[in-house]
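INFO  loader      accepted 1 record
INFO  loader      residues=164
INFO  predictor   begin
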Amino acid sequence: MTLLPKSMKARRRLMIFLIAAPILMAGVALALFAMKDQVVYFYTPAQAYEAKAEWHRTMRLGGLVKAGSVVKGPGGEVTFVVRDQKAEMTVRFKGDLPDLFREGQGVVCEGQRVSADVFEAKTVLAKHDETYMPKEVVKAIKEQGEWRPESAAKPDSKPFGEAK
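INFO  predictor   done
INFO  writer      dumping C-alpha cells
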C-alpha cells in the first residue's frame, strides 16, 4: 500500500507542493527574521507596564499629555507626562516639539523606555482632533467666502509655549 495518489496529475501536484512549500516557508522565515529589529510596537502607558515592555528597545508610546506636566528645561529639553485611563509615564525629549503639541492633546512618542517610568523620546508626534484645520486651508476658505467659524479649532486650546 502506497500513500501516493494513483493518478499522475495528482502525483505531479503533490510533488510541486512538496518542493514549493519548504521554499515558501524559508522565504517567510527570512522575511520575519529580517523584520525582527524593524518592528516597533505601540503601547499606552498602562499597556507598557502590563506587558513589561523591554527597556532600551525602540517602541511608540501614545496617550494624552497630562495638564500642567510640561516642563521646559535649559538646553531645549522638555519633560512631560503621557497618561491614559490607568497609568502615566514621564517622557523626556530634546528638540523642537510639533506645533500641535499641547497639554490635554494626544501624542505619540517614538523612543526607548530607559527606566521603570521614564521614556526617552527621539520623535514626538502630536495628534489633533477632528476640528483641526490648517491655517492655509482656513485662509483659502475665508478668501472664498465659505468660512464657518464653528468648524475651526477650539479657541481655548493654544499650542505649548503660547500665552493663554
